[in-house]
Design brief:
This protein is of the alpha+beta class and 231 residues long. It is built from seven helices and seven strands, in the order H-E-E-E-E-H-E-H-H-H-E-E-H-H.
């Protein structure tokens, strides 16, 4: 029943490697089957080159392993908090890609400086608050997910398909695991562009809201007209 989900999540994990977004075993991708409430995720510490669909771990939304003999990613609890809070998402990706992680380590959200950014994020890429020592000690990964959810109060996660966890690295999501992987690549690209933009001009200002709205909504709004009509 979950063969298609396993294949999609495996492909998402391999895609972030192909895009140069992870080194060694850094990062992970997952996907959810909403009908059953089951999640497929990369096993912890397994090299990507050794990964097959049968290695993926299947869990429920409480983190209980349903299928698989390997331990799930140590970030599982973060993924689960996102699935529970954002019912429209179907996939989550976590990387330590260089430029997005640099913004996270600098404690800065990524400003929306141009239309490439606006095409995918309807404003600056959000960044979380630091966790308290108690949150870190008691349930670090779950608390990370809760911090992301808290940061998204008042924001539409489908209009902002990613976040920077302060001092840590990015998480992205999408309608499925493949889209979450695509958003990880896009986030890294706009993080790189933003870095070079503020390096070239420290006074670079935000893209005007009218232009930002136009670029985002022509692609994602109810009246979107970018691309081809699906029949």
């Amino acid at each position: 029943m979950l063969d298609a989900l396993r294949e999609a999540v495996l492909e998402a994990n391999l895609e972030v490697v192909r895009r140069g977004l992870v080194l060694y075993t850094f990062g992970n991708a997952s996907g959810i089957d909403r009908a059953s409430g089951l999640v497929a995720i990369k096993p912890s510490g397994v090299p990507y080159e050794n990964l097959g669909p049968g290695d993926l771990v299947i869990t429920d939304l409480e983190g209980k392993t349903v299928e698989g003999t390997l331990r799930p990613s140590s970030d599982l609890a973060t993924h689960l908090e996102l699935y529970k809070a954002f019912p429209k998402i179907g996939g989550v990706v976590h990387t330590h890609s260089r430029f997005a992680t640099s913004w996270a380590q600098a404690g800065r959200e990524i400003p929306c400086l141009g239309t490439t950014h606006a095409d995918y994020f309807h404003g600056p890429v959000p960044i979380t608050e630091h966790l308290s020592p108690g949150e870190i000690d008691m349930a670090y990964e779950r608390a990370t997910g809760e911090a992301i959810v808290k940061r998204f109060e008042g924001l539409n996660p489908m209009a902002f398909p990613g976040v920077l966890v302060v001092g840590h690295a990015p998480f992205t999501w999408g309608k499925n695991a493949g889209e979450a992987a695509m958003h990880a690549a896009i986030l890294e690209e706009i993080a790189t562009m933003a870095y070079y933009s503020v390096t070239l001009n420290a006074a670079a200002g935000d893209l005007p809201k009218t232009v930002m709205d136009k670029h985002h909504l022509r692609k994602h709004g109810p009246d979107a007209y970018y691309g081809q009509v699906k029949k």
